[in-house]
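Key idea: predict the complex, not the pieces.
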Amino acid sequence: MPNIKKKKQQSLHKRDSEFAIANKQLEKLSNGIFANGELPTFSEKIKETDQFPLRPSKLEILQINVGYMCNQVCEHCHVDAGPDRKEIMTRETMLQCLEVIKNTGAHTLDLTGGAPEMNPDFRWFVEEASKAGIQDFIVRSNLTIIRANKKYHDLPEFFKKHDVHVVSSMPHWTRGKTDKQRGEGVFDQSIKALQELNAVGYGMPNSNLRLDLVYNPSGAFLPGDQTSMEKDFKKALLEDFGIYFHNLFAITNLPISRFLDYLIASENYEDYMYSLVEAYNPAAVKNVMCRNTISISWDGYLYDCDFNQMLELKVASQIQHISEYNEDILNNRKIIVSQHCYGCTAGAGSSCQGVVTN
Amino acid sequence: MANNNYYDPADLKKFGKISEWSKELGDKFFEYYGKVFEEGALTAREKSLIALAVAHTEMCPYCIDAYSQDGLQRGITKEEMMEAVHVGAAIKSGATLVHGVMMMNKVNKLEM
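Result:
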């Protein structure tokens, strides 16, 4: 294990924090400035443009969270992932997911976690899922897992063999900002991992092996312009470390879980919510990711997005589990929203694929 | 007014309201302001750092608040921000000191 010292070594769950409980988070997001009328609730806001209730569009992305275990404990993590989280998708649930993958019209499969690679059946699942003919097969890798242990060192080759699209978090091109958010030592290990991915062809100019980076702000502020950030990241990573990558996705931090805990502890919660509401962009609503995505949890339950999954807000449908998956019935649901949804509709909008407006 | 301070952080959000009492001039100002900060021969990032330095020399708390946040949003590091503040401080102190030449000229002229 490389020398990665976490700022906070434990998840909210392990610390018995109030916000380890989804209902406590939802209470916080519903009360105070939203209950006293200072700020409009998200439902009220989207009613202004007749977009309530929010309905799904055509399903394009299946996002599968194969477990909350992670080798990092990032300050902002909306999953509250960490080494102490034991929730892991079983092979039985994976088989149910494979059945759906084979029969769905979705063009993108998006594996996430925690560190998805830490699921003991991860490689088996990737091998099986890659046979399903999905157009874009994403694995969200935190990069350091590649360097964490000998058994993960061949991951770049493994990803290449299965033509996996690697999407990795990288909060900044400097050590200080990256380590502050993701843990001491993460920057150096991430740089090495990126170089190893480049070495097998990932992210290289004209390479079909896709390597994208995810940027999210290291604090209580919104992301800047994605195009400018991408330019700055590319210049700095190439000049300083000879690293190439394809695109940068700028993602807004949503006020849930550890980021919510941070906002409250740092007394930034109200100002941050004001910023999100002020930056609300009605044009982003039609492209929010919950409209074309189904999120599947480690235990096979279905959610509108990974954030609703962490808030334990299962889809509002008679179909709530992968074992009874039915796309037609699911398409008739109303998407569940709360104040965290402002995060996906601020500025240029935010999704797991970055901004949602041009 | 409940607020007993000259400066209130909440007032920054009301900046746009200055147009309400003089729409034409206010609109012209904001049009100009917006244009100035567009990407040009200088990048928006460089302009943000200049603005931050000037915000300090002008001792404008609203501007410091705004351009500290703007800098973070653009991925500007705190080291870069502090360097910009030092540039402002250097010019400010230099501007004071260079007037010392005026003082020296005057003294030299008056003294026997």
